[in-house]
């Protein structure tokens, strides 16, 4: 991999003198969906697939970016003197946004860079290819210029840039999972306080399988921001009766007694999902610790049902993948993962059922949807690194 990247860098930027090679993972969320902007818990993990980069400091202010995933776009050039998002900048709005965000946080980037990227996360799949690029860029800036920031800061800067530069009101989950990833572990994160705990994911005789619907999704044009405002509005209504800062502070029982104050059936459903999903996540981590994998799977299934019926972020593609998965013997749990509206599902599948799973779900999906899904048996990897 390293040789291929360096050879490409030399082809595009002349030579490889002064370069370094880096990697940042993608992530999959096991449970705790659409809870991270509601002060709830999430339970994601970093993957061994992700984004590779070759980077080199420049003496001038130029930013020259090239992605092996979008070769037809060629080198996209901008400058430290012009850090604004633009349509022409395309994917480079992500690294540019991070450079801008460092400046906003008092860490002005002193010189430009040449940067080549190559990701093996399917684009737009809901496995956080963009957050991976954001954290990777922050990691490179820290290494290149010696900025005094922790990995957790890199996550926060990534989220800040996604919110303020790229206009997506996302929570902290993706950037946190990527910046703080630990091999073999998922991260149980309380998004209200950012306190977290690593939980070993020991799946005896089973693996995590991701099914990619190949329905592309862009967070910006999805209903993501709309869901977020619906929850915020529901919270404001609840705050007339209780003193809470977020939906994540409520138990299921409290919510049931209070929900009448929310003045719209749709908002009640949205808030119900946020409250119940948070509680499911806490129970799921407990189940995993106690080796109750079947119960963990059950909670994953219920998470999907809630995202389908109450939060309404699934769609026929994700529903088909999950509902077909539930029919396969040896599937412990299956649900959509990430923002929804396309992207991927995550399933825990017994080793001996994986081939049948891929075959059966794949065929049923193609028959119903008209194009193929892709399947990945994944491993839990670590955070960003210098290679
Ligand atoms: C996207 C966002 C995250 C989170 C998930 C839904 O991945 O970037 O912050 O809200 O959707 O759980």
Total strand count, please?
13
Instruction: Name the bound molecules.
Output: alpha-D-galactopyranose
Q: Structural class from helices and strands?
A: alpha+beta
General shape = globular
Mean pLDDT: 96
Strands in their spatial order, largest beta sheet: 5-4-6-3-1-13
Range of strand content: 15-25%
How is the biggest beta sheet arranged? Answer: 6 strands, mixed
Q: Can you describe what's shown?
A:
With about 375 residues, the chain is an alpha+beta fold. The chain is about 40% helix and about 20% strand. It contains eleven helices and 13 strands. The strands form three sheets. The protein has a six-stranded mixed beta sheet, with helices on both faces. A four-stranded antiparallel beta sheet has the order 10-11-9-12. The protein has a three-stranded antiparallel beta sheet with strand order 2-7-8, covered by helices on one side. Bound molecules: alpha-D-galactopyranose (GLA). The site of alpha-D-galactopyranose has 10 residues, from helix 5.
Secondary-structure map:
Layout: H1 2-13, E1 20-29, E2 41-42, E3 44-57, E4 62-67, E5 76-79, H2 93-104, E6 113-119, H3 129-145, H4 151-164, H5 173-179, E7 185-190, E8 195-200, E9 206-212, H6 224-238, H7 252-258, H8 265-289, H9 293-309, H10 316-327, E10 331-337, E11 344-350, H11 354-369, E12 374-378, E13 385-386
Parallel strand pairs: 4-6
Antiparallel strand pairs: 1-3, 1-13, 2-7, 3-6, 4-5, 7-8, 9-11, 9-12, 10-11
Alpha-D-galactopyranose binds at residues 33-34, 36-37, 170-171, 173-174, 338-339.
């Amino acid at each position: 991999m390293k040789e291929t990247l360096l050879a490409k860098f030399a082809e595009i930027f002349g030579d490889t003198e002064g370069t370094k090679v880096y990697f940042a993972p993608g992530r999959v969320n096991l449970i705790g969906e659409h809870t991270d902007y509601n002060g709830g818990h999430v339970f994601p993990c970093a993957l061994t697939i992700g984004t590779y980069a070759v980077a080199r400091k420049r003496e001038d202010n130029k930013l020259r970016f090239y992605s092996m995933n979008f070769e037809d776009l060629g080198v996209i050039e901008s400058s430290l003197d012009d850090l604004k998002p633009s349509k022409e900048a395309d994917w480079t709005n992500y690294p540019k946004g991070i450079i801008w965000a460092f400046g906003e946080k008092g860490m002005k980037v002193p010189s430009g860079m040449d940067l080549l990227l190559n990701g093996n996360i399917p684009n737009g799949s809901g496995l956080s290819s963009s957050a991976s690029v954001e954290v990777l860029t922050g990691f490179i800036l820290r290494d290149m210029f010696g900025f005094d920031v922790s990995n957790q800061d890199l996550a926060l800067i990534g989220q800040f840039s996604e919110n303020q530069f790229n206009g997506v009101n996302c929570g902290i989950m993706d950037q946190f999972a990527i910046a703080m990833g630990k091999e073999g572990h998922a991260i149980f994160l309380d998004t209200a306080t950012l306190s977290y705990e690593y939980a070993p994911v020991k799946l005896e005789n089973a693996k995590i399988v991701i099914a990619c619907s190949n329905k592309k999704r862009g967070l910006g044009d999805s209903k993501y921001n709309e869901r977020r405002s619906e929850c915020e509005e529901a919270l404001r209504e609840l705050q007339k009766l209780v003193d809470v800062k977020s939906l994540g502070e409520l138990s299921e029982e409290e919510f049931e007694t209070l929900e009448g104050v929310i003045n719209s059936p749709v908002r009640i459903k949205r808030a119900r999902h946020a409250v119940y999903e948070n509680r499911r996540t806490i129970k799921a981590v407990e189940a995993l610790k106690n080796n109750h994998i079947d119960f963990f799977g059950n909670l994953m299934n219920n998470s999907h049902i809630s995202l389908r019926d109450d939060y309404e972020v699934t769609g026929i593609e994700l529903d088909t993948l999950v509902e077909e998965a539930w029919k396969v013997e040896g599937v412990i749990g299956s649900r959509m993962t990430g923002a929804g509206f396309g992207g991927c599902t995550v399933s825990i599948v017994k080793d001996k059922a994986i081939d049948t799973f891929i075959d059966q779900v794949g065929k049923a999906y193609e028959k119903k949807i008209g194009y193929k899904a892709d399947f990945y048996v994944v491993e839990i990897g670590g955070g960003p690194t210098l290679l």
